[in-house]
Design goal:
Number of strands: 5
Distance between the termini: 64 Å
Shape: elongated
Largest sheet: 5 strands, antiparallel
Order of helices and strands: HEEEHHHEEHHH
Helix content: 55-70%
Strand order of the largest sheet: 3-2-1-5-4
Length: about 220
């Protein structure tokens, strides 16, 4: 039980971190001049794209604004739904406690989808959305001596929490998926299937009714 409970607790904490990470800053891009004065600053969030701490209308800051990354918004919605469903599975049943294998298999799909979406954010997000837009990952300081500026590229709190969350959810998610696979494989063994068929076709015997019928027959024979 301890081997299961600790990964389950880790998954719950991981789900919370993953949910919170969606609403935090994921990436930061800043530009400073030779006097180390901040002249441009942009932060990326999965829901709001790029935001800045500078007032609108400052030309220099607007010139350095990165292009919108265009991460599909529905990915975030699907991710939130999957997080909620995974918590529901945790509180409803364990893979070894489920009586119906088909239900357990469906639940394992939730954890598989959760891992897939988290891998998208952790690996595919920087590979397909940051690098192609010349936004370097995870941290880079680029000094441009000709223009007299320094560009700072760095991941932020949201991405870090996403990475930690992935590490926390991985053990129990893999455990649930693998245990479901083992259950399904064992269920398909010939002796198990034969036992299940016998259970389905075998009529339950009512002992009390059987005894009552035997007593009735005995009395009839006695009074003949």
């Amino acid at each position: 039980m301890k081997m299961v409970s600790y990964p389950k607790l880790m998954l719950l904490v991981g789900v919370i971190l993953l949910f919170v990470s969606l609403f935090l800053e994921w990436y930061s891009f800043q530009v400073v001049d030779l006097n180390n004065v901040l002249i441009a600053s942009w932060s990326y969030n999965l829901f709001y794209e790029w935001t800045t701490e500078f007032p609108s209308g400052i030309t220099v800051n607007e010139e350095y604004k990165p292009l919108n990354l265009g991460v599909p918004f529905y990915f975030n919605i699907l991710f939130i739904i999957t997080l909620v469903l995974s918590v529901g599975v945790i509180f409803s049943r364990d893979s070894h406690e489920s009586k119906k294998l088909t239900n357990t298999r469906y639940f394992s799909y939730i954890f598989g989808f959760l891992l897939a979406l988290t891998i998208f954010y952790v690996i595919l997000f920087p590979s397909f959305y940051l690098y192609p837009n010349e936004l370097y990952f995870p941290v880079l300081t680029n000094v441009d001596s000709e223009l007299g500026i320094t560009k700072n590229y760095t991941i932020s709190t949201g991405y870090i929490l996403q990475l930690i969350g992935f590490i926390l959810i991985f053990p129990y998610s893999v455990y649930y998926i693998l245990s479901t696979f083992v259950q399904e494989r064992n269920y398909r063994l010939p002796e198990i299937q034969i036992e299940e068929i016998i259970k389905e076709i075998q009529e339950p015997i009512d002992i009390d009714e059987f005894i009552a019928e035997e007593e009735l027959v005995f009395k009839e024979e006695r009074y003949k």
